[in-house]
Amino acid sequence: MTLIRYQSAVELANLIRSKDLSPVELMEETLRTIEAINPTFNAFVAMQADQAMTEAKAMADSIAKGEDPGPLAGIPIGVKDLEDVKGMVTSFGSVPFKDNLAQQDSVQVARLKCAGALVVGKTNTPEFGFTGFTKNRLFGVTRNPWNRERTPGGSSGGSAAAVASGMVPLATGSDAGGSIRIPACYSGCFGFKPSYGRVPLGPVPVHHISRTLTQGPLSRTVEDAALYLDCVAGYHPADQDSLPGPGISYLESLNNLDKSLKVGFSPTLGYARVQQDIMALVEDAVRQFEKMGHSVEIWDGEIPEVGQAWSELTSCDIYAQVHQDLEKIRPELGKTLVMSLDHAKTLSLDDHIKNQKIRSDLNRALWEFFERFDLLLTPTMPTEAFAAKGPPPGEIDGHPIPLLGAVAFTYPFNLSGHPAATVRVGLTDTGLPAGLQIVGPRHRDDLVLKAAYAYEQTCPWNDLWPEIS
């Protein structure tokens, strides 16, 4: 059974469909692993072990009768605690919401279940997904499987830690500013932020103001993420911004990458600073695209500074979610979150117009970029994983950086809506994962996945995971 722990979801589902592995055996091994190592990493904060085992047994019975178990046949998954699973609490990592029992599944969770996935529990997140490291007053700190003193990142940190430690092969994430890509990079997983609207959100009581939030997978391989997306992508009436189905299978099209793409590499996006050993790993990864036959050019352009606009817009989303009860729950919320909410409340119409103008400027810059290039490559994170309890680094290689300098490469592509993935490019001098970000034209999720898959075949990472006793 030890081989199961780091097998991909695609491999495990195939084993179950061929009856070489029972979903009950897989669930038993999964629950044993979580029980043994979750206390060390605090990836899962709530479990439904009995229900998951009951569902695994029911699936085993249906397979014995010759019924199709679905593309995610019996795969145990974790669900980020910002997303609803019927009958489980969605706490948002926040004390005032510790009893917030979900009455129905989110669209994404319902589609994963329909595809045969089995939810084992909820994974930890910072309060309302507000920070790039995973710590909250309700459940405490989540730790990185590569180094327990470091963070797995955030806000999908619990999901990343669950995948990287071998607890589950797949977990859900959400990303409004890097919250899939940050923890995927810091934890050595594959993380994919789809185009805005690709995976339907909701149901939600208030439509998102910022239009930055996406949902997607944290996985062990690109194939797993492509299979996941095949199961969840496509229009749903709960989300008026959701896109029609892509008309292709992301999994089946992974091998169909054009042989000679025009690739632009931006080491800094015109403003960022990057840890030296990470930059060396990223540059090596970029050279692999040349070896694959693609034309790679350093892009010396830059994008507009969008940090304040992004921050204000995303804070408005959280404010919209809690504003009616804010004064009552204020003492139980984190101080930095409260400051951000109070600022969101003061924003004027002129402020919102200014922020949308910045968004338009960003769109123009990326429009011009993708007229020249097929793909954009950047570092994913400018630093390696920092202390588990935070704070994020204020300097890189002795040079001060602004607050958002620690996540400099991720949030612009939430404001723009472009699909983006992070692939592991190796380990830093201290043995922590580093990542390359692959960004594609808007709605070209297939191209980003194909490019990530081609890189993964050249430089595989699924054979190296942290050693956990």
Structure description:
There is one protein chain. The protein has 469 residues and is an alpha/beta fold. Helix content is 36%, strand content 14%. It has 14 helices and 15 strands. The strands form three sheets. It has an eleven-stranded mixed sheet. A two-stranded antiparallel ribbon has the order 4-5. A two-stranded antiparallel ribbon has the order 12-13. β2 (76-80), α4 (107-114) and β3 form a beta-alpha-beta unit. The model has no long low-confidence stretch (mean pLDDT 97).
- Average pLDDT metric: 97
| Oligomeric grouping of the chains | single chain
Which fold does the CATH topology refer to? Amidase signature (AS) enzymes
Distance between the termini: 15 Å
For the largest sheet, list the strands in their spatial order.
1-3-2-6-8-7-14-15-11-9-10
CATH superfamily: Amidase signature (AS) domain
Quick gist of this model?
The chain is an alpha/beta fold and 469 residues long. The protein is built from 14 helices and 15 strands.
Secondary structure layout plus pairing:
Elements: H1 9-17, H2 23-41, E1 44-47, H3 49-64, E2 76-80, H4 107-114, E3 118-123, E4 135-136, E5 140-141, H5 157-164, E6 170-175, H6 181-187, E7 190-193, E8 214-219, H7 222-232, E9 262-265, H8 276-291, E10 295-298, H9 307-322, H10 326-329, H11 335-346, H12 349-372, E11 375-379, E12 395-396, E13 399-400, H13 412-416, E14 420-427, E15 433-439, H14 445-458
Helix pairs in contact: 2-3, 5-6, 7-14, 9-11, 9-12
